[in-house]
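User: quick one, fold this
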Amino acid sequence: MKKYMFCFLLFVTASAICLGVGFIITKDSVRPEEAVPGATLETETVTEAQIVINQEEVQPANATGKEKYYLVSEDGYLLVLYQDKTTICLYTHMPVTDFPEEERGKLMEGIWFSSMIEVFNYLESYTS
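Assistant:
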């Protein structure tokens, strides 16, 4: 019985030492990610013309009234393209087969959206 107790205590001690050494080694390697200067999130849209700190006029994101994103099916998967219809904005990795037949026809032709949030809302409405 003493032999088993000794082995168990040796195992617990060695495990604690390994965990402690692993914690010390990795605690400095995990650092929070810093924000990219000048980057804005899609949710940060301006709804009316405003003056900002540097006194430049900021136009609303939808001021042009043009649709910016194009959701289209290509090779059986959905892609989000920019306004020029050639530059890929997002690979969704979502198969078209997840959508109803009526929507598949629309996706084959392509659907325009004015913001990325609208694209995500559309995709979420058919995949959840």
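User: anything notable?
Assistant: The mean pLDDT is 78.
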